[in-house]
Each structure stands twice: as C-alpha cells, then as structure tokens.
C-alpha cells in the first residue's frame, strides 16, 4: 500500500463490487486480510478459492459483462493516479493437493491467521515435502489443534518452488501451545528424521494476518 494514502477506495471496491460479484458467480468464502503489527509497507491480502483454472478464466471473463460489478467499481476504476492507494499487486496461484483438497472456513472465533510459505531448493524436494504433508502432517496438525484453512503447491508467483498454507487461531497463546504440541508429537518426531524427507525445506516465510471486516473467512 502507499504510505499515507487513504485505503478506503480499495476496501470499498473489494467490499461493494468485487467480492459480491464473485459471490454471484458461485465463488464462496473470499478472504480479505491485512498484516498484523506495524510492518511497512502495509500489505493487504485477498484469497479467492476457485474449483479449477477453467473456473478462474470463466469468472474473470464474466466480470467484464457484469453490469452490477461495472457500476459498483466505477469509483475505483476512475481513481486518478495520485489517489490510488497501492503501488502494485502480486498474484499467486496455489494448487491444492489430495491431502487437503478444499478450503475450510474456520469458526467465527478464529479470526487470526498465520500464512506460511515453505520454499524448497528444487522441484523434487518440494514434491517430497508435499508428500510428507499429504501422508502424515495434516493428521498431526488436526491432532494438536492447528486449524488448517488451505494448503497447496505454488504454481506461479514469487519464491518458487514452494508451497503455501494458512492456519486460523483464536489468539497467539493458544497458537503457540498448538505448535509446541506439534514439535513434541511422537508421529512428527518419527517422520521428521526419515531420510526421504531430508532437505525438503530451504526457507520458511511466516506472515501473521487478521481478517478485515468484510472478509468471508
């Protein structure tokens, strides 16, 4: 986001034009978040779940013919350059895996989120890490109280090759307790030392988010 610039134009566009238009086309549970803390430049995240790439293409094309969307987005589209609230945006496509195939909407009491990006040094390392999740880690997460929202392999964007997933939690204390249980879990300790899963993660990015008032997650 642009430092010192009003964000209202972008929030109104998401809330009153884009998200309702996506809902009309059957896209549910669109998430809208901002980073917690005082990190600059400020970032806003939009999470849009599509069933497949064809649905993404169809929805994108249909937005051009949605007169309600076009009318609702006029203020945003006509904003002059010196008033636009962001510098640039980045899009990332993330493909879910069989172990966690669909986005899961968390309970209303879970409005804090952790976004985690695991980078791998090559594609085979990423394949092995995704296998580790599919066959063991999802079950461990569930057992220790780490609430998954989505998981998938990044197929475009930065930090490639990589996977991304999101966790929802009530507060940081309970979140930390769950991660502590994960580290001490005997199944995790067993699989973490298997030779097959050596050198699968070369870097981890953690981003803490909070849902915006109009978020559907």
Describe this structure in words.
The chain is of the alpha+beta class. It has two domains: 8-83, no CATH class; 94-211, 2-Layer Sandwich (Alpha-Beta Plaits). Helix content is 36%, strand content 20%. It has seven helices and seven strands; from the N terminus they run αββαααββαββααβ. The chain has helices at residues 8-24, 53-63, 67-72, 74-77, 123-144, 172-184, 186-191, and strands at residues 31-35, 44-47, 94-95, 112-119, 147-154, 162-169, 203-211. Strands 2-1-7-4-6-5-3 form a seven-stranded antiparallel β-sheet. The longest helix has 22 residues, at 123-144. The protein starts with 7 loop residues before the first helix and ends in a 6-residue tail after the last strand. The model has no long low-confidence stretch (mean pLDDT 96). InterPro entries: Dimeric_a/b-barrel, NIPSNAP.
Mean of pLDDT? 96
Report the CATH architecture of the largest domain.
Answer: 2-Layer Sandwich
Number of domains: 2
Order of helices and strands: HEEHHHEEHEEHHE
Main sheet overview: 7 strands, antiparallel
Determine the strand fraction and express it as a percent band.
15-25%
Number of helices: 7
CATH top level class name of the largest domain: Alpha Beta
Strand order of the largest sheet: 2-1-7-4-6-5-3
Record field, number of beta strands: 7
Distance between the termini: 22 Å
Fraction of helical residues: 25-40%
CATH fold assignment of the largest domain: Alpha-Beta Plaits
Category from helices, strands and their pairing: alpha+beta
Poorly predicted runs: none
